[in-house]
Amino acid sequence: MQMFRNEAIKLLAAVLPAAKEDLAGELENPPAPEMGDIAFPCFKLAKTLRKAPTVIAAELKDKLPESKLFARIEAKGPYLNFYCDRALLARTTVESILEQREAYGRLDLGRGKTVVIDFSAPNIAKPFGVGHLRSTVIGNSLYRLYEALGYKCVGINHLGDWGTQFGKLIAAYLRWGVAEKMTADPLQHLYELYVRFHREAEQNPALDDEARAWFKKLEDGDPEATRLWRHFREVSLADFKRIYKILGVEFDAYQGESFYNEMLDETVALVEEMGLAQASEGALVVDLSAEGMPPCLLRKQDGATLYATRDLCAAIYRYNTYQFDKMLYVVGADQALHFRQLFAVLKKMGYSWADRCCHVPFGLIRFQDGKMSTRQGTLVFLEDVLNRATELAAGIIQEKNPGLANKEEVARQVGIGAVIFGDLSNDRIKDIEFDWDKVLDFSGETAPYVQYSHARICSILRKADNWPQEYDASLLTGAEEQAVINLLARFSDQIVRAAETCKPSVIARYVLDVAAAFNTFYHRCPVLQAPPDISRARLALIDAVRQVLVNGLWLLGIAAPEEM
RNA sequence: ACGCCUGUAGCUCAGGGGACAGAGCAACGGACUUCUAAUCCGUGGGCCGUAGGUUCGAAUCCUACCAGGCGUGCCA
């Protein structure tokens, strides 16, 4: 498609005074196939040329030189519409997909550049809830998107393995902990203790002081506190890794908050040396009133550090380690102010790379009755969601395709794919109301819909076993075929847009569009029963669709089973 | 009180200056001797939160207001 766009720009530049780059920005995608493949609106020329846009479009049509890339170029009202040579578009698109395979859609815009992605970051000693799924799957998808554009990616899991909550947990464990439960199901027990702590602290505020004291002890290296912390961390991490394996998510580094403990004093000292820190109400803060923000707290009254301190330290450490060209923080929108403060402090410290740091916010998952809360014990465990989705998928397979060879594996892929897709298919900034019915709905705009389309293609290709792989894609000129090809040709554009906006939903929507166009084609155009030359061309086309679906689902972190 | 985000079909959401505003779900009506019906085709359904403004052109940009969510120094 880029080839056709460049040609259109070349033609226009030959008859218009405008620069090629400006023309490139003007080109649009027509809303309907009858209107061609590339459109050039003439409104803006009306002023400089002092003519009506419709007149300009008509005149341009007559003036434009011939091009063998376009079947025709027509003026439709104020638009100049370019109609690609359909046979040529079909050939170049299908052939390049089948040549490039897994690499189709990839670009090298980011060659030599590094992007650090901070994502998932679950809190140690708390179960992995559906809330943490968002950061995990969005971050994982962004990792793959940037990688597809040629960037070197560094995925960091900034585990919440330090902070006041450990004081609470230690206090709670020492009061109410039961060793047998801790051995049997450590995460469940820790969760119960955490919930109980918050419930009892409401009646008994002295508990909070006790927790703060334990955290201070932990920071000061108290052996008892350290031993418990280490144990909590160990059992949690083992559990998280199990879930990441189920989700197919990997990290280049697990550098949690505790990782920076030894560097904290140094960082705070640096801020102080720069004269940016000041005492306020017993705490140490960086004043940000000039930036119109509340101050950023670096030390509490008792001298203990805060979240912001460690994030500041982490940012500096990461720049020194990776010299990133971009750093993405995939963290909930409720922390927007924190990141604005963090970036403002970095800027005050004179780090020019502060502008390369970017908060990628997302909306909260909540219930009808409000926000999900670990403290109140209203958490929905991710694993329960994944298991129920998998069971449901297994049930449907049993009903529709009982002879399927690796049922459990496919049920996992479909169930988990549905959960991931449900999270990625809408704009990340929007809040999600958690609804079991919706999570467990496998029809319509869902991963199973896309996976099913893929499986259907695989089924046809299996039946066409040993087809000669010789085809003439220029025969693919039917409306359904062209609709599919038009989408396939625009895959790279969507990857770029998804990465630029940090919105995996762009790819999710795209993959749905491709699947929908394929399904329409499937119902109207026989593949195996068509005349031999058409049949071969259509086999090539559906193989291309299959490849784009696989590549697209990969970018979302979703598997594409060949049968389901 | 202030700041940020969101408001589009009954429900969940696409579209984020350009050609008649689109899907899915739900409802109703059709299509499985034919490549997997987790599918497809069709019908109905809209002051794009409200009011102004910018523009040749606004669901899209600006302002104000309304509604909801989130946040606003010792949680993360």
Written description of the protein model:
The chain has 564 residues and is α/β, with parallel strands linked by helices. The chain folds into 3 domains: 2-84, 2-Layer Sandwich (Gyrase A, domain 2), CATH 3.30.1360.70; 114-260 and 322-371, 3-Layer(aba) Sandwich (Rossmann fold); 386-556, Isoleucyl-tRNA Synthetase, Domain 1 (Orthogonal Bundle), CATH 1.10.730. Helix content is 55%, strand content 10%. The chain has helices spanning 2-15, 20-26, 43-49, 53-63, 86-100, 130-148, 164-176, 179-184, 186-203, 206-219, 223-247, 264-273, 307-322, 336-348, 382-400, 407-424, 436-439, 447-463, 479-488, 491-501, 505-524, 532-556, and strands spanning 38-41, 70-76, 79-84, 114-118, 152-157, 253-254, 277-280, 283-286, 296-299, 326-330, 357-360, 365-367, 370-371, 432-433. The protein has a 5-stranded parallel β-sheet. Strand 12 (365-367) and strand 13 form a beta hairpin. Helix 5 (86-100) crosses helix 22 and helix 19 (479-488) packs antiparallel against helix 21. The protein is globular, with a radius of gyration of 28 Å. The two termini are 33 Å apart. The mean pLDDT is 93.
Summarize the structure.
The protein is an alpha/beta fold. 55% of the residues lie in helices and 10% in strands.
According to DSSP, the number of beta strands is 14
- At the fold tier of CATH, the topology name of the largest domain is Rossmann fold
Shape: globular
Mean pLDDT: 93
How many domains, in number, for the residues?
A: 3
Instruction: Please state roughly what percent of the residues sit in beta strands, choosing from under 5%, 5-15%, 15-25%, 25-35%, 35-45% or over 45%.
Output: 5-15%
* Count of alpha and pi helical runs: 22
> Using only CA atoms, what is the Rg?
28 Å
Q: What would you call the structural class? A: alpha/beta
CATH superfamily of the largest domain: HUPs
